[in-house]
Amino acid sequence: MPARNTVCLWFNGDALDAAGFYARTFPDSSVDEVIHAPGDYPAGKAGDVITVRFTVMGIPCLGLNGGPEFTHSEAFSFQVLTDDQAETDRLWDAIIGNGGQASECGWCKDRWGLSWQVTPRVLMEAIADPDPAAARRAFEAMMTMSKIDIATIEAARRG
Fold first, then answer.
1. Residue where a domain stops, chosen among 40, 68, 96
2. Same domain, yes or no, for 11 and 56?
3. pTM for the full model?
4. Potential cystine with 107: which of 3, 46, 89, 103 (Cβ 3.0-4.6 Å)?
């Protein structure tokens, strides 16, 4: 049974491709159900994939193949907390290496236009450090980065 509350993401005909990539890339992710159009409709034909139910790191999602009218923006993003540099690198490189685009401060965009924050837990701890000077140094280091470098964040935090 589908979740009662689901994130619905609009795609231009490639929701199944995106869902498959997410299922292969992120832990606790899967493609759960593919619904095909039972008849012709203005933007497609009977048999076309119209929706895909999928899970991204435990979050239920619905990919809707709605067409080119709407595109994704940074106003919505998935924030993925990572445990170490290897996991940060693996996820960042998977997104960028599959037609994505790097941005700043741990943000990147996948080839479908969805934004991701690949965020090491160490970074979140550092910018919330009770020592304001340590938090500021870590924050300032982050502001110079595209993909987050944990060693640099830790060094900045220590001063």
1. 68
2. yes
3. 0.93
4. 103
Query: Cα dist. 7→20, 29, 61, 92 in Å?
Result: 16, 14, 5, 22
Both 26 and 104 in a single domain?
no
- Mean pLDDT for 45-59 is 97
> What's the whole-number average pLDDT of the chain?
96
Distance in angstroms between the alpha carbons of the first and the last residue of the chain: 51
CA distance 48 to 25: 25
Does residue 41 carry a pLDDT above 90?
no
Strand (E) or helix (H) holding 15? helix 15-25
C-alpha dist (Å) from residue 52 to 33, 35, 84, 122: 6, 6, 31, 34
Q: In terms of Cα–Cα distance, which of 24, 33, 71 is closest to 52? A: 33
- Would you say residue 154 has pLDDT above 80? yes
Both 114 and 38 in one domain: the answer is no
Closest CA to 57 of 30, 31, 84, 92: 30
Per-residue pLDDT tens over the stretch 92-151: 999 999 999 999 999 999 999 999 999 999 999 999 999 999 999 999 999 999 999 999
pLDDT in tens, 98-113: 999 999 999 999 999 9
